Each structure stands twice: as C-alpha cells, then as structure tokens.
Amino acid sequence: RKEVEQDPGPFNVPEGATVAFNCTYSNSASQSFFWYRQDCRKEPKLLMSVYSSGNEDGRFTAQLNRASQYISLLIRDSKLSDSATYLCVVNSPYGNNRLAFGKGNQVVVIP
Amino acid sequence: NAGVTQTPKFRVLKTGQSMTLLCAQDMNHEYMYWYRQDPGMGLRLIHYSVGEGTTAKGEVPDGYNVSRLKKQNFLLGLESAAPSQTSVYFCASSLRQSKNIQYFGAGTRLSVL
Predict the structure, then answer these.
(1) Partner B contacted by A10 (CB < 8 A)
(2) CB A46 to CB B48 under 8 A?
(3) Which of A78, B46, B71, B109 is most buried, judged by most C-beta within 10 A?
(4) Quick one: which of A8, A86, A9 has its CA closest to A47?
C-alpha cells in the first residue's frame, strides 16, 4: 500500500463553486500533515498545514481524520487562479521523518 | 529574494554521460533535499543533508551521489546517466526546527537519451 494516496482527477470545477477532495495515508504513526500546491511545470509550494482540530485559511479548509487516516481539502468560491495540483504530504516515520508526497489532485476551474 | 536556485533548468544527456546539478539557497537553512518527480508518481526523495559535510540516502538513491561542502550548496551527481533517470529534479531546503516546511527550487528537467 502506498504511503499517501490521492485520486489524481482532474476535478473540473465551475468558477465560484466548491470543490473538496481527500487523501489517505497508510501509517498511523504519522504526526504532521500538509497540503502543498503545484502549478503546471512549477515547483511545489506550501499551501497550509493541517491541524487535528481542522483549520481554515481564507477560502481553504483542511481537516484531519486520524481514525480513518485521511485528510481533506475544501476550496470555497473557486477562482480561476486556484487551478493547480494539490499535493497531500505526510511526514513518514521511516527514513528520519522524511516527507511522503501524494501524486496530487488536479483541479481545473472553468469560467 | 532568491530563495532556492537550481542550475541548469534543462539538460539533455546521452546514456552513460555524467553531470552535476547545483542547488543553492540563501535562507541559511540547515536541511537540504533532492527529489525527483515522474509522471503519475509523487515526489520521491533521492538524498538529503542535515548540515554541511553530511549526507544521507532517501527512498531512491541508486545511481546518484551528493555532496554538501558548503551550507548553502547541495550538489547532485549522476555518474553514468540512464534513460530511467529522465525526470524533473527538485531541490528543497528547510530550517532544522521546521523541517516539514520545505522551500523548493524551480526544478531541472533532465532527459537521458
């Protein structure tokens, strides 16, 4: 089983709509969770950390479900500029606490 | 602010050739990393360094070597390139106390023919 699994999509979203997607992680010992954003042919950049109680950053909401081992990201009022791939990232207890990256959820916001 | 700078941005190699990818960061970060990103796969860690003069293997270290002679620089070497090493390579850096917050360079697109 892969450490981090994501449905690659694409998720086609009308402008102004809400989109949500999950990722699952395999190791229950993981302690830190993040969403990174990667624009086409660009480098990944941190979007937000994910806290146990859930957290918001503007139009973005992240949730963590430890019992089911998944994290989610919800984007409200989608903008064209939200089109990107969203990478689910989990710290791995293997190999000196390295980060394990999912393949990403591709979001395409349609005018 | 330069952040993390990678050179070159693009390179085409023939099988068996060697090359070195350079990563430089100006944020005084202790930790540095080399990843590769292939279609349909997540970023995979090749090697990393927790400080000047130290390096360690990641998930996929075979066929690569690294050196960290200066704190700000992290070099990735391919001694004898293979087509399987065709990929996009990203360098990243982080502070020791927040190693999960990594800052990436713009990437190097490498094709091995």
Answers:
(1) no
(2) no
(3) B46
(4) A86
> CA-nearest residue of chain A to B59?
A95
A1 half-sphere exposure, CB direction, 13 A CA radius: 7
The rounded mean pLDDT for chain A is: 92
Q: Is B5 in CB contact (< 8 Å) with chain A?
A: no
Facing B40 at nearest CB: one of A45, A91, A103 = A103
The interface residues of chain A toward chain B in range 58-97, judged by CB-CB distance below 8 A, are 87, 89, 91, 95-97
pLDDT digits (tens, 9 = 90+) for A30-72: 889 999 999 999 999 999 999 989 999 999 999 999 999 999 9
Say if residue A97's pLDDT is above 70: no
CA–CA separation, B11 and B30 (whole Å): 28
Partner residues linked to A13 by β-bridges: A109
Residue A91: its H or E element = strand A84-91
Residue A63: C-alpha distances to residues A24, A33, B25 (Å): 12, 10, 32
Phi-psi region of B99 (alpha: psi -120 to 50; beta: other; left: phi over 0): alpha
